[in-house]
Specification:
Radius of gyration: 31 Å
Pfam families: N_methyl, T2SSI
InterPro entries: N_methyl_site, Pilin-like, T2SS_GspI_C, T2SS_protein-GspI
Subunit structure: Type II secretion is composed of four main components: the outer membrane complex, the inner membrane complex, the cytoplasmic secretion ATPase and the periplasm-spanning pseudopilus.
Subcellular location: Cell inner membrane
Order of helices and strands: HHEEEE
Family: Belongs to the GSP I family.
Strand order of the largest sheet: 1-2-3-4
Helix content: 40-55%
Number of strands: 4
Largest sheet: 4 strands, antiparallel
Distance between the termini: 108 Å
Shape: rod-shaped
Length: about 130
């Protein structure tokens, strides 16, 4: 009778393969969760960068509109600081068919030289 109890007790529990499969499933689930979290963090940072870059670009366009003289034709490189972050800004002014107007393009990049936003306007004489 005692031998039968030992045989029953030894068949209870999980085998090593079952434990390894369970650990593999948990590892895959954790890896997927980590990737999803990383994607959310990157998206939030990108959204913040776009908002700050848009503020920089709009400030440059407002400067061009508010100036007493029409902006000079050519490119100007500046740095805009928003929320303790520096953004390289390029302001490109080109002539139009009508000499009373100039096209102003503002491009804001990140520190890795990737374009974040580009905004254009037309500035006229007063």
């Amino acid at each position: 009778m005692k031998a039968r109890r030992n045989a029953r007790n030894s068949t209870r529990g999980f085998t090593l393969i079952e434990v390894m499969v369970a650990l593999a499933i948990v590892a895959i689930a954790l890896a997927a969760g980590t990737q999803a979290t990383t994607a959310l963090v990157r998206n939030a940072q990108r959204q913040s960068d776009v908002m700050l870059a848009q503020i920089c670009a709009e400030n440059e366009l407002i400067l061009a509109r508010m100036a007493s003289q029409m902006p000079a034709i050519g490119d100007t490189a500046r740095t805009c600081t928003q929320a303790n972050t520096d953004f390289p800004v390029t302001v490109s002014t080109t002539a139009t068919l009508n000499p009373n107007f100039r096209r102003v393009d503002v491009q804001v990049r990140d520190l890795n030289d990737y374009s974040i936003i580009r905004i254009s306007t037309v500035v006229g004489r007063y």
